[in-house]
Amino acid sequence: MKLLTALCSKVIFFLIFSSMLFCISVSAQNGRYEVKGKVVDKSTGLPLQGASVFAQNTTLGVTSDEQGNFSIRLPDGGYSLTVTFSGYETEVERVNNNNPANANL
Questions:
Q1: How far is CA 52 from the centre of its chain?
Q2: Scanning 27, 34, 35, 64, which has its CA 20 to 30 A from the CA of 9?
Q3: Which residues are registered as beta bridge partners of 9?
Q4: Within 10 Å of residue 7's Cβ, how many Cβ atoms?
Q5: pLDDT bucket at 23, cuts 50 / 70 / 90
Q6: pLDDT at 24 over 50
Q7: What is the largest CA-CA distance in the chain?
Q8: 3-state secondary structure of 33
Q9: pTM of this prediction?
Q10: Cα separation, 61 vs 47, whole angstroms
Q11: What does the alpha-carbon distance between residue 20 and residue 22 come to, in Å, rounded to a whole number?
Q12: Cα 37 to Cα 71: distance, rounded to the nearest angstrom
């Protein structure tokens, strides 16, 4: 399987789901942190434009752009980040600004 790579000075996580590849990086600043990533089809590697990415139990969410990229700013703390796209299985992953390495890789 071909993994996408990102050029970034921040910590990068590769999260492989049953139908999507979801790559995120986390950076913190001023009581908030930013989660950036890309959502692609796992089997073809094509970006999924319009995938919904949101933090459960909040009103915070975004959609992926035409290259599958997204960026969401969250208040400090841990969240269940949910990714949905029509025709794909919904995926959930915990993110945390204090210890992002706890994500399931």
A1: 10
A2: 64
A3: none
A4: 5
A5: low
A6: yes
A7: 38
A8: strand
A9: 0.69
A10: 18
A11: 6
A12: 7
- The token pair at 100 is 């992002």
> How large a percentage of the chain has pLDDT more than 90?
45
Using the 8-state DSSP alphabet, how is residue 4 labeled?
P
Q: Which helix (H) or strand (E) holds 59?
A: none
Task: Give SS3 for 87.
Answer: coil
Three-class SS of 16-70: ECCCEEEEEEEEEECCEEEEEEEEEECCCCCECCCCEEEECCCCCEEECCCCCEE
Q: Express each pLDDT in 46-91 by its tens digit.
A: 999 999 999 999 999 999 999 999 999 899 899 999 999 999 999 9
Of the candidates 51, 49, 62, the residue with the CA atom closest to the CA atom of residue 84: 51
Residue indicated by tokens 């390495």: 101
pLDDT of residue 7: 28
3-state secondary structure of 62: strand
Output the six-digit token pair for 3. Answer: 């993994």
Q: Write out the two tokens for 49.
A: 């434009």
Give me the count of residues in the chain. 105
